[in-house]
Amino acid sequence: MRLDRFLAESTELTRGLAKRALIRGEVSVNGELEKKAARHVQETDRITWLGERLSLVGTRYIMLNKPEGVECTARRGLYPRVVDLLDVPKLERLQPVGRLDVETTGLLLITDDGQWSHRITSPRRRCSKAYLAHLARPLEGDAALRATQAFAEGIELEGEDEPTRPAELTCLDDHHVRLVIDEGRYHQVRRMFAAIGNHVETLHRESVGALVLDDTLEPGEWRELTPEEVALF
Predict the structure, then answer these.
(1) Same structural domain for residues 44 and 65?
(2) Three-state DSSP class for 3?
(3) Which Gene Ontology molecular function entries are recorded, alphabetically (predicted)?
């Protein structure tokens, strides 16, 4: 690998800025000053920039406990971005796996592995997502039974030609439910409850597939996935 490319992939420098850093004498290879951008280097070489040893950034798989008030977008807008909660190099390469709306909290996966992300989000994969919802109006007795059956059969959403796929609704108490779906339409969970005359006050995603949100993570905190967790998808 060319030295300027190594610098660009292991730091926040662009290729152009990496070449300037070399010209300024900021880079050493195996203890010796190096100014040639085209020099071929390997990961086993000891490469330093401004005295700090560098290493290539590998593929990253991150679990974030998304807080309320941040959005899953690459562009800066009205709200902070979820990627801005991460303190990692090459931030611009990371993308959320799917979306959670600004108000929704809980498990959000973030990666720079496009194929891995596609395996989770592809409609053909039918990857399940489990949500905890706090409802504005109580859901109990016969109403709870009707809602459970309706969700299992599929809900007609406003503006949609096809009903939702069968979903598993579990009533935890009068105002709290767990809903498991295996598709990802726009604001789907909130729209499903609106279709039966209710309103979601708060929504929290607790799992994606077999991967459950780490309960030691506070809102806004994150950690790298283990190899075993990555292999779940």
Answers:
(1) no
(2) helix
(3) 16S rRNA pseudouridine(516) synthase activity; RNA binding
User: Looking at the DSSP assignment, which residues form a beta bridge with residue 28?
Assistant: 33, 48
Ordered DSSP codes for 46-105 = -EEETTEE-------EEEEEEPTT-B--SS--SS-BGGGG---SSGGG-EESS---TT-E
33 three-state secondary structure: strand
Residue 171 burial (CB count, 10 A): 19
User: In DSSP terms, which residues pair with 33 in a beta bridge?
Assistant: 28
Read off the pTM: 0.80
Question: What is the set of active-site residues?
Answer: 101
**The domain spanning residue 93 has which CATH number?**
3.30.2350.10
* DSSP category for residue 210: T
Q: Do residues 142 and 84 share a domain?
A: yes
Tokens of 123: 């409609």
Same-domain check for residues 115 and 174: yes
List pLDDT tens digits, range 164-220. 999 999 999 999 999 999 999 999 999 999 999 999 999 999 999 999 999 999 999
Residues constituting the chain: 233
List the domain range (segments joined by +) for residue 226. 61-230
Q: Cα–Cα distance between 15 and 214 in angstroms, integer?
A: 37
> Which secondary-structure segment (H or E) carries 133?
strand 129-135
Number of structural domains found in the chain: 2
Residues 200 and 87 in one domain: yes
Q: Is the dihedral of CA 190, 209, 164, 142 positive or negative?
A: negative
**Nearest-angstrom CA–CA distance, 145 and 25:** 72
On whether both 48 and 139 belong to a single domain, the answer is: no
